[in-house]
Amino acid sequence: MRFYLTTHKRHWVRLTKVPLFLKSEHFTSAVTLPEALGPYAIDSGGFTELQNHGRWTRTPRQYVQDLRRIWECVGPYDWAAPQDWMCEDLIIHGGTAGPLTFVGTHLSVEEHQRRTVANFLELRSLAPELRIAPAIQGRKVSDYERCLELYDNAGVDLNQEPIVGLGSVCRLQSTLEGAAIVTAMAAHGLRLHGFGFKTLGLERVGHLLASADSAAWSYHARRRPAMPGHTHKNCANCLPYALQWRQRVLAGLPTWHQPELAA
């Protein structure tokens, strides 16, 4: 299981060999891009897009252009997420969660799934040479099974894909419901990536995942004093803290986790 550190600090790719997970938009505004020292994967930023706008504001063609520039300038990435449509209630219906406000798409789960599959097909058509991964979405096990059928009907064999993103489980990962979804999808033989997994979710179903990413280290750091010798208020944007947090998480998991990479 490859465990990616999620960060908005694009320059970290030239500072560590630890796998990183970065949103594509963190690269698009830069005049020059850093060359990656180690493995990394690209998030499409769908949660932010749908939260703030209730739709995608970037066209598939624009997204492909961004991915090509990242590949050429930063280096080959492991894979890039599609412009998928998450199925969490807040994304669909809108509302508030703490300081966050969600516009809501006001579409059905079925429509989100249809658009997710359609987008993957379009991206694959526009850029067959890029490592764009399919994603499956839903709210319960039967939804995800239906999403698999949509891919199958479109002629996409998910079992042949190097990685398949498992969406809309971030807030369910440590629950029995979330575990049931991961278990059911893993039973199909898919190499799953768990978006936004935290420690409890990894402890419960991490052995069923090919990879996962997490930004929980930053949330953790914001609520604690800075590391000794650090002058900032907290370490929410601090690479040394993130690397130590990752090591602690992996050390606390069963022995199925990946061998460590040098920082």
Question: Which helices and strands occur, and which strands form pairs?
Answer:
Blueprint: E1 2-6, E2 20-23, H1 25-28, E3 40-43, H2 46-53, H3 60-74, H4 89-93, E4 95-97, E5 100-102, H5 109-126, E6 135-136, H6 141-153, E7 164-166, H7 176-186, E8 192-194, H8 199-205, E9 211-214, H9 216-222, H10 239-251
Parallel strand pairs: 1-2, 1-9, 2-3, 6-7, 7-8, 8-9
Antiparallel strand pairs: 4-5
- Multimeric status of the protein: single chain
- Biggest sheet layout: 7 strands, parallel
Helix content: 25-40%
Number of domains: 1
Radius of gyration: 18 Å
Determine the N-to-C terminus distance.
17 Å
Task: Identify the CATH homologous superfamily.
Answer: Queuine tRNA-ribosyltransferase-like
Q: Would you tell me the structural class of the helices and strands?
A: alpha/beta
Q: What's the arrangement of strands in the largest beta sheet?
A: 3-2-1-9-8-7-6
Using the alpha-carbon principal axes, give the shape.
globular
Count the helices. How many? 10
Describe the structure in your own words:
The chain is an alpha/beta fold and 263 residues long. The chain has one domain: TIM Barrel. It contains 10 helices and 9 strands. The strands form 2 sheets. Strands 3-2-1-9-8-7-6 form a 7-stranded parallel beta sheet. The protein has a two-stranded antiparallel ribbon with strand order 4-5. β4 and β5 form a beta hairpin. The longest helix is centred in the middle third of the chain and has 18 residues, at 109-126. The radius of gyration is 18 Å and the shape is globular.
